[in-house]
Amino acid sequence: MDKDFPKFRYHPDPIGTGAFKKADKPQICECCGQKTGYVYESPFYSTEDVECLCPWCIADGSAAKKFDGEFQDAYSCEKIDDVSKLDELIHRTPGYFGWQQEVWLAHCNDYCAFVGYVGMAELENMGLSDKLEDIYRKDEAMFDIGDIRECMTNGGSMQGYLFRCLHCGKYQLYADCD
């Protein structure tokens, strides 16, 4: 429990995005059996009903291996050439919640880092609203730019998911709705 919080290449701020929450009191990780002050709150696809995973068991892949699970559906990840990166993403990276099926975006032949949940207000605060035509991945979603500008709100019926390329730094936006 005193270890440094692990780093996740494709999900650099999993506490900020809500993938992990700080527990009110230490919990027992079902994978390693150790006490943890952080509990995983995002999707884990397994036939077993797992209630508590610590960040360390996710980072080292032991949770995915022990419970034969994935943190992201491999079929909902954009295609890249390096299968080891797909393995890191689905077996050792915290996922995120989407309204529909989560899609993990890629750019520069690598998976992007999940930045967080956004609406137009967040994009405006980041100075990205005027770049919407450039960052919105319409090829992966079904809405036109007008719908995004008018309806996308963080926590609303149309939700944005912001990613950033690890290589060139370009933002990528995916959206879905309830």
From TrEMBL:
Pfam families in alphabetical order: UPF0167 (PF03691)
Listed InterPro entries: UPF0167
Family: Belongs to the UPF0167 family.
Protein name (database record): CbrC family protein
